[in-house]
What does this fold into?
Amino acid sequence: MAARVILLPGDGIGPEIIGPAVEVLRAVGAEFDYEEHVFGGASIDAHGTALTDETLAACKSADAVLLAAVGGPKWDTTDPSRPRPEQGLLGLRKGLGLFANLRPVKPIPALYDASPLKADIIGGTDLLVVRELTGGIYFGAKTRTEDSASDECVYTRAEIERISRVAFRAARSRVTSVDKANVLETSRLWREVVRGVHAAEFPNVELEHLLVDNAAMRLVAAPRHFEVILTENMFGDILSDEAAMLTGSLGMLPSASLGEGGPGMFEPVHGSAPDIAGQGVANPLAMFLSAAMMLRHGFGMGDAASAVESAVDRALAEGLRTPDLGGDATTARATQTVLQHL
It folds into this structure.
């Protein structure tokens, strides 16, 4: 019986890039049973909520979840009583226990000229951001009155220990733990617990601690310095997007969100790009690379994952450029070019 994959096209360009990703998966010999569900803004329009109980149950019972994109100005609101597409993401992460977000950042030589940084700065960069995904300020208690608001930031020892292990296991030689321990009590606990896990379980991996502002500067000045960046939820959200721009386009970066034993969720880092939705010019490459991460981390199909990644690299080396990369290739042409290299 084939493994079951839930497809969540979501909003904006999402429905335009998820179909091509399935084409690429089939071309590389990955045969799954696919089941599609509405999610995000599309689900708000249809059901009044970004994540229905039915969709969450389907994701829980699947082997993996492939998500395209959510959100858009249509559903943008500051009214706490109205649903937002992003609530669906938080609900999925919590419901599936997806506490570890992995974002690899490896600028491709063919795209060095697309980066806002000089090639001699980004050349050779190969880093992984490991972000804690279900704790911290995003999930803390929230209050709101007419004149004040608060967001509680809470971390437990167990939450920090388990995300630390993910980072140390992913590292070849060095982990950089990022916090704000000069100001925040949660960061002081973070630093203490990371040190403890390192000493007890991973003494052969080098560990360094950086304050988040220093880490943000060093990501731009010397990105090659980093191998694995370990950090909490909000810092990880910000730093991973900063690191993404080393490649010149958010349209190039995949991500994986993993838990303990259940299905993982795999999605491109980019948003729903509502300004180009429906035009057939969305860059599908991050979606393809997210599908590759699903093959590797969700199903242990490392060779198939490498084949997809290699096909994307070769297509770019040959000159494939979608509009976000300064070219004019359509979504369909980008898909066909990658398929030709598989």
Observations:
- The first helix runs from residue 14 to 27.
